[in-house]
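Quick illustration, no need to memorize.
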Amino acid sequence: MDNKKQEKTLFTKNRDSESQFSAIMKSFDLALLNIGHFSGKEWNYGPICSGFSRFYLVDEGSATVTIGGRAHTLSKGHVYLIPSLLTHSDRCHQQFGHYYIHFVDCSKHILDYFHKYDMPLQLDSTAEDQQIIRRLLSLCPDSSLSDPLPETYDNSTSMIQLVQRFKLLPLGKQMEVNALLMLLLSRFFDKAKQQENVSDQRILKALYHIGNNLDKTFSIEEMAEEAHLGVYRFIRLFRQQTGYTPVEYIIRQRILHAQMLFIDGNHTLKEVAGMVGYSNYAYFTRSFKKVTELTPSEFIRQNR
Protein backbone atom coordinates (compact mmCIF):
# COMPACT_ATOMS: atom_id res chain seq x y z
CA MET A 1 0.00 0.00 0.00
CA ASP A 2 1.47 3.41 -0.98
CA ASN A 3 1.70 6.38 1.39
CA LYS A 4 -1.42 8.12 0.06
CA LYS A 5 -3.55 5.02 0.56
CA GLN A 6 -2.11 4.51 4.07
CA GLU A 7 -2.88 8.13 4.97
CA LYS A 8 -6.43 7.80 3.61
CA THR A 9 -7.02 4.57 5.55
CA LEU A 10 -5.64 6.11 8.75
CA PHE A 11 -7.75 9.25 8.27
CA THR A 12 -10.89 7.15 7.73
CA LYS A 13 -10.20 5.08 10.87
CA ASN A 14 -9.53 8.20 12.95
CA ARG A 15 -12.66 9.90 11.59
CA ASP A 16 -14.79 6.84 12.39
CA SER A 17 -13.28 6.64 15.88
CA GLU A 18 -13.89 10.34 16.51
CA SER A 19 -17.43 10.05 15.18
CA GLN A 20 -18.15 7.13 17.50
CA PHE A 21 -16.66 8.99 20.49
CA SER A 22 -18.68 12.09 19.62
CA ALA A 23 -21.87 10.02 19.47
CA ILE A 24 -21.14 8.52 22.88
CA MET A 25 -20.42 11.95 24.37
CA LYS A 26 -23.71 13.31 23.02
CA SER A 27 -25.68 10.33 24.32
CA PHE A 28 -24.65 10.92 27.95
CA ASP A 29 -26.22 13.63 30.10
CA LEU A 30 -24.15 13.38 33.27
CA ALA A 31 -25.11 15.33 36.39
CA LEU A 32 -22.88 15.54 39.44
CA LEU A 33 -24.89 14.96 42.61
CA ASN A 34 -22.30 14.92 45.40
CA ILE A 35 -18.56 15.34 45.75
CA GLY A 36 -16.56 15.53 48.96
CA HIS A 37 -14.24 13.73 51.33
CA PHE A 38 -15.05 11.22 54.08
CA SER A 39 -12.74 10.21 56.91
CA GLY A 40 -13.75 8.08 59.87
CA LYS A 41 -13.83 4.66 61.50
CA GLU A 42 -17.41 3.67 60.73
CA TRP A 43 -18.43 3.05 57.12
CA ASN A 44 -20.97 0.25 57.33
CA TYR A 45 -23.93 0.37 54.97
CA GLY A 46 -25.91 -1.93 52.72
CA PRO A 47 -26.98 -3.74 50.83
CA ILE A 48 -27.31 -0.65 48.63
CA CYS A 49 -28.59 -0.55 45.04
CA SER A 50 -28.70 3.04 43.77
CA GLY A 51 -29.94 4.80 40.68
CA PHE A 52 -26.64 6.73 40.51
CA SER A 53 -22.98 5.72 40.14
CA ARG A 54 -20.16 6.16 42.65
CA PHE A 55 -16.51 7.00 42.11
CA TYR A 56 -14.01 6.73 44.99
CA LEU A 57 -10.37 7.73 45.41
CA VAL A 58 -8.99 6.22 48.63
CA ASP A 59 -6.32 8.25 50.43
CA GLU A 60 -6.30 6.67 53.89
CA GLY A 61 -6.65 3.16 55.35
CA SER A 62 -8.84 0.49 53.78
CA ALA A 63 -12.41 -0.79 53.70
CA THR A 64 -14.38 -3.63 52.12
CA VAL A 65 -17.08 -3.55 49.46
CA THR A 66 -19.01 -6.77 48.84
CA ILE A 67 -20.53 -7.32 45.40
CA GLY A 68 -22.26 -10.54 44.39
CA GLY A 69 -21.07 -12.29 47.55
CA ARG A 70 -17.43 -11.43 46.88
CA ALA A 71 -15.53 -9.05 49.18
CA HIS A 72 -13.22 -6.48 47.57
CA THR A 73 -10.70 -4.42 49.53
CA LEU A 74 -10.64 -0.67 48.92
CA SER A 75 -7.11 0.54 49.64
CA LYS A 76 -5.02 3.71 49.51
CA GLY A 77 -3.66 4.71 46.13
CA HIS A 78 -6.54 3.30 44.08
CA VAL A 79 -9.69 4.58 42.39
CA TYR A 80 -12.97 2.66 42.27
CA LEU A 81 -16.15 2.72 40.20
CA ILE A 82 -19.46 1.31 41.40
CA PRO A 83 -21.97 1.59 38.53
CA SER A 84 -25.62 2.44 39.12
CA LEU A 85 -27.99 -0.45 39.95
CA LEU A 86 -25.09 -2.61 41.20
CA THR A 87 -25.91 -4.00 44.65
CA HIS A 88 -23.08 -3.65 47.16
CA SER A 89 -22.39 -3.52 50.91
CA ASP A 90 -19.77 -1.37 52.65
CA ARG A 91 -17.83 -2.49 55.71
CA CYS A 92 -15.11 -0.73 57.73
CA HIS A 93 -14.17 -0.63 61.43
CA GLN A 94 -10.90 1.28 61.18
CA GLN A 95 -9.73 4.67 60.00
CA PHE A 96 -10.74 5.07 56.37
CA GLY A 97 -10.61 8.12 54.13
CA HIS A 98 -11.70 8.67 50.55
CA TYR A 99 -12.93 11.23 48.07
CA TYR A 100 -16.37 10.35 46.71
CA ILE A 101 -18.24 11.44 43.59
CA HIS A 102 -21.89 10.55 42.99
CA PHE A 103 -23.19 11.13 39.48
CA VAL A 104 -26.16 10.14 37.38
CA ASP A 105 -26.74 9.92 33.64
CA CYS A 106 -30.10 11.62 33.11
CA SER A 107 -30.36 10.06 29.63
CA LYS A 108 -29.97 6.56 31.17
CA HIS A 109 -27.85 5.55 28.17
CA ILE A 110 -24.84 4.79 30.33
CA LEU A 111 -26.74 1.86 31.86
CA ASP A 112 -26.57 0.13 28.48
CA TYR A 113 -22.78 0.46 28.49
CA PHE A 114 -22.46 -0.70 32.09
CA HIS A 115 -24.39 -3.87 31.23
CA LYS A 116 -22.60 -4.50 27.95
CA TYR A 117 -19.13 -4.33 29.49
CA ASP A 118 -17.40 -6.18 32.31
CA MET A 119 -16.21 -3.13 34.22
CA PRO A 120 -13.12 -3.17 36.45
CA LEU A 121 -13.81 -2.19 40.03
CA GLN A 122 -10.30 -0.92 40.85
CA LEU A 123 -7.54 0.98 39.06
CA ASP A 124 -4.30 2.56 40.29
CA SER A 125 -4.86 6.25 40.99
CA THR A 126 -2.94 8.82 38.97
CA ALA A 127 -1.97 12.45 39.40
CA GLU A 128 -4.58 13.27 36.74
CA ASP A 129 -7.32 11.66 38.86
CA GLN A 130 -6.38 13.91 41.76
CA GLN A 131 -6.30 16.98 39.51
CA ILE A 132 -9.76 16.15 38.14
CA ILE A 133 -11.17 15.76 41.65
CA ARG A 134 -9.65 19.05 42.75
CA ARG A 135 -11.16 20.77 39.73
CA LEU A 136 -14.59 19.22 40.32
CA LEU A 137 -14.45 20.36 43.95
CA SER A 138 -13.75 23.91 42.78
CA LEU A 139 -16.59 23.78 40.23
CA CYS A 140 -19.10 22.31 42.73
CA PRO A 141 -17.85 23.56 46.12
CA ASP A 142 -21.06 23.03 48.11
CA SER A 143 -21.87 19.48 47.00
CA SER A 144 -20.56 17.37 49.89
CA LEU A 145 -22.87 15.09 51.86
CA SER A 146 -24.29 16.60 55.01
CA ASP A 147 -24.85 13.09 56.39
CA PRO A 148 -23.08 9.89 55.20
CA LEU A 149 -26.11 7.67 55.91
CA PRO A 150 -27.44 6.45 52.52
CA GLU A 151 -31.08 6.83 53.57
CA THR A 152 -30.55 10.60 53.87
CA TYR A 153 -29.51 11.07 50.24
CA ASP A 154 -30.04 7.79 48.35
CA ASN A 155 -33.63 8.36 47.23
CA SER A 156 -35.35 9.77 44.18
CA THR A 157 -36.50 12.98 45.92
CA SER A 158 -32.93 13.84 46.84
CA MET A 159 -31.67 12.85 43.38
CA ILE A 160 -34.22 15.11 41.65
CA GLN A 161 -33.27 18.05 43.86
CA LEU A 162 -29.54 17.48 43.29
CA VAL A 163 -29.97 17.16 39.52
CA GLN A 164 -32.00 20.39 39.51
CA ARG A 165 -29.25 22.10 41.51
CA PHE A 166 -26.64 20.91 38.99
CA LYS A 167 -28.74 22.11 36.05
CA LEU A 168 -28.76 25.61 37.55
CA LEU A 169 -24.99 25.87 37.05
CA PRO A 170 -23.83 27.98 34.09
CA LEU A 171 -23.78 25.92 30.90
CA GLY A 172 -20.01 26.19 30.62
CA LYS A 173 -19.55 24.67 34.07
CA GLN A 174 -21.99 21.87 33.28
CA MET A 175 -20.06 21.07 30.11
CA GLU A 176 -16.73 21.04 31.97
CA VAL A 177 -18.09 18.79 34.72
CA ASN A 178 -19.46 16.40 32.08
CA ALA A 179 -16.08 16.31 30.34
CA LEU A 180 -14.20 15.65 33.60
CA LEU A 181 -16.60 12.87 34.60
CA MET A 182 -16.20 11.36 31.14
CA LEU A 183 -12.41 11.40 31.59
CA LEU A 184 -12.76 9.47 34.85
CA LEU A 185 -15.16 7.00 33.22
CA SER A 186 -12.93 6.59 30.16
CA ARG A 187 -10.17 5.07 32.27
CA PHE A 188 -12.48 2.30 33.44
CA PHE A 189 -13.98 1.68 30.00
CA ASP A 190 -10.45 1.52 28.59
CA LYS A 191 -9.86 -1.57 30.78
CA ALA A 192 -13.38 -3.00 30.39
CA LYS A 193 -14.21 -6.08 28.35
CA GLN A 194 -17.31 -6.35 26.23
CA GLN A 195 -19.66 -8.94 27.71
CA GLU A 196 -21.87 -9.55 24.74
CA ASN A 197 -19.92 -10.03 21.56
CA VAL A 198 -22.80 -11.61 19.71
CA SER A 199 -22.05 -12.38 16.09
CA ASP A 200 -24.61 -15.10 15.31
CA GLN A 201 -27.61 -13.53 13.59
CA ARG A 202 -29.98 -16.10 15.11
CA ILE A 203 -28.95 -15.11 18.65
CA LEU A 204 -29.04 -11.41 17.77
CA LYS A 205 -32.61 -11.91 16.58
CA ALA A 206 -33.45 -13.70 19.86
CA LEU A 207 -31.97 -10.83 21.92
CA TYR A 208 -34.00 -8.32 19.93
CA HIS A 209 -37.14 -10.39 20.50
CA ILE A 210 -36.47 -10.59 24.25
CA GLY A 211 -35.81 -6.86 24.56
CA ASN A 212 -39.04 -5.95 22.82
CA ASN A 213 -41.27 -8.50 24.57
CA LEU A 214 -40.29 -8.36 28.25
CA ASP A 215 -43.95 -8.01 29.20
CA LYS A 216 -44.98 -11.16 27.34
CA THR A 217 -44.72 -14.86 28.08
CA PHE A 218 -42.73 -16.91 25.59
CA SER A 219 -40.93 -20.24 25.81
CA ILE A 220 -37.38 -21.28 24.99
CA GLU A 221 -38.88 -23.84 22.60
CA GLU A 222 -40.55 -21.02 20.63
CA MET A 223 -37.32 -19.06 20.44
CA ALA A 224 -35.37 -22.13 19.35
CA GLU A 225 -37.92 -22.93 16.67
CA GLU A 226 -37.79 -19.37 15.36
CA ALA A 227 -33.98 -19.67 15.18
CA HIS A 228 -34.38 -22.99 13.32
CA LEU A 229 -32.40 -24.79 16.02
CA GLY A 230 -33.06 -27.63 18.40
CA VAL A 231 -33.66 -26.53 21.98
CA TYR A 232 -30.37 -27.86 23.40
CA ARG A 233 -28.36 -26.49 20.47
CA PHE A 234 -30.07 -23.10 20.87
CA ILE A 235 -29.29 -22.98 24.61
CA ARG A 236 -25.61 -23.90 24.04
CA LEU A 237 -25.20 -21.33 21.29
CA PHE A 238 -27.02 -18.64 23.32
CA ARG A 239 -24.67 -19.23 26.27
CA GLN A 240 -21.58 -19.22 24.06
CA GLN A 241 -22.61 -15.87 22.60
CA THR A 242 -23.92 -14.07 25.71
CA GLY A 243 -22.45 -15.85 28.73
CA TYR A 244 -25.94 -16.67 30.03
CA THR A 245 -28.58 -19.29 29.44
CA PRO A 246 -31.73 -17.88 27.79
CA VAL A 247 -33.62 -18.09 31.11
CA GLU A 248 -30.84 -16.30 33.02
CA TYR A 249 -30.65 -13.58 30.40
CA ILE A 250 -34.41 -13.03 30.30
CA ILE A 251 -34.62 -12.76 34.10
CA ARG A 252 -31.73 -10.27 34.27
CA GLN A 253 -33.26 -8.10 31.54
CA ARG A 254 -36.69 -8.17 33.17
CA ILE A 255 -35.32 -7.23 36.59
CA LEU A 256 -33.18 -4.44 35.12
CA HIS A 257 -36.27 -3.03 33.41
CA ALA A 258 -38.23 -3.37 36.66
CA GLN A 259 -35.55 -1.39 38.52
CA MET A 260 -35.86 1.45 36.03
CA LEU A 261 -39.65 1.43 36.33
CA PHE A 262 -39.42 1.56 40.12
CA ILE A 263 -37.01 4.51 39.97
CA ASP A 264 -39.43 6.37 37.71
CA GLY A 265 -41.93 5.91 40.54
CA ASN A 266 -45.14 5.93 38.52
CA HIS A 267 -46.28 2.33 39.05
CA THR A 268 -47.23 -0.02 41.87
CA LEU A 269 -45.26 -3.19 42.62
CA LYS A 270 -47.83 -5.44 40.98
CA GLU A 271 -48.08 -3.19 37.93
CA VAL A 272 -44.32 -3.37 37.45
CA ALA A 273 -44.35 -7.15 37.87
CA GLY A 274 -46.91 -7.42 35.08
CA MET A 275 -45.04 -4.97 32.87
CA VAL A 276 -41.95 -7.20 32.93
CA GLY A 277 -43.77 -10.44 32.29
CA TYR A 278 -44.52 -11.81 35.78
CA SER A 279 -48.10 -12.87 36.47
CA ASN A 280 -46.99 -14.46 39.75
CA TYR A 281 -45.97 -11.67 42.14
CA ALA A 282 -44.25 -14.03 44.58
CA TYR A 283 -42.07 -15.41 41.77
CA PHE A 284 -41.26 -11.85 40.69
CA THR A 285 -40.16 -11.01 44.23
CA ARG A 286 -37.90 -14.07 44.41
CA SER A 287 -36.36 -13.29 41.01
CA PHE A 288 -35.85 -9.64 41.95
CA LYS A 289 -34.06 -10.52 45.19
CA LYS A 290 -31.92 -13.15 43.49
CA VAL A 291 -30.60 -10.56 41.03
CA THR A 292 -30.39 -7.46 43.27
CA GLU A 293 -30.13 -8.97 46.81
CA LEU A 294 -33.07 -6.72 47.74
CA THR A 295 -36.81 -7.29 47.72
CA PRO A 296 -38.80 -4.91 45.48
CA SER A 297 -40.04 -3.10 48.60
CA GLU A 298 -36.49 -2.63 49.91
CA PHE A 299 -35.34 -1.35 46.54
CA ILE A 300 -38.22 1.12 46.38
CA ARG A 301 -37.49 2.41 49.89
CA GLN A 302 -33.93 3.16 48.78
CA ASN A 303 -34.71 4.71 45.41
CA ARG A 304 -38.23 6.16 45.28
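Confidence is low (pLDDT under 50) at residues 10-14.
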